[in-house]
Amino acid sequence: MHPGSTVTMISFWLGTLLPLVYFPVFLTGIDSMSRFSLFLALIAVNILALIIGHNYQNSPIRE
Q1: Cα–Cα distance between 62 and 48 in angstroms, integer?
Q2: Spatial CB neighbours of 38, under 8 Å, sequence gap ≥ 6
Q3: How far is it, in rounded angstroms, from Cα 53 to Cα 13?
Q4: Cα(35)–Cα(10) distance, rounded to whole angstroms?
Q5: CA-closest candidate to residue 55, choices 45, 19, 20, 2
Q6: What is the pLDDT of residues 7-48, one digit of tens each?
Q7: Rounded to whole angstroms, how far apart are CA atoms 47 and 30?
Q8: Where does residue 15 rank: exposed (0-12), middle (13-18), buried (19+ CB within 10 A)?
Q9: Which of 5, 26, 29, 50 sits at a 20 to 30 Å CA gap from 61?
């Protein structure tokens, strides 16, 4: 496994699972600027992780 493929794998799974963190933020409410900033940071990290991890393949290519 290449170091680049490890980063891709981690980014893919982070981008896939990070939206689960949105629920506690929604449940506690976005009633302050710090909560809103947290929410925007989560979205930014999620978008970045999806961009980096979009080429991830679950199984190695065999030739």
Answers
A1: 29
A2: 25
A3: 8
A4: 26
A5: 2
A6: 999 999 999 999 999 889 889 989 999 999 999 999 999 999
A7: 20
A8: buried
A9: 50
d(CA 56, CA 8): 6
Residue 21: CA count within 13 A, CB half-sphere: 14
Q: In Å, how far are 2, 19, 53, 62 from 46, measured between CA atoms?
A: 23, 8, 10, 30
Q: Which residues of 42-62 are buried (b: 16+ CB within 10 A; e: fewer)?
A: eeeebeebeebbeebeeeeee
Using only the alpha carbons of the chain, give its radius of gyration.
15
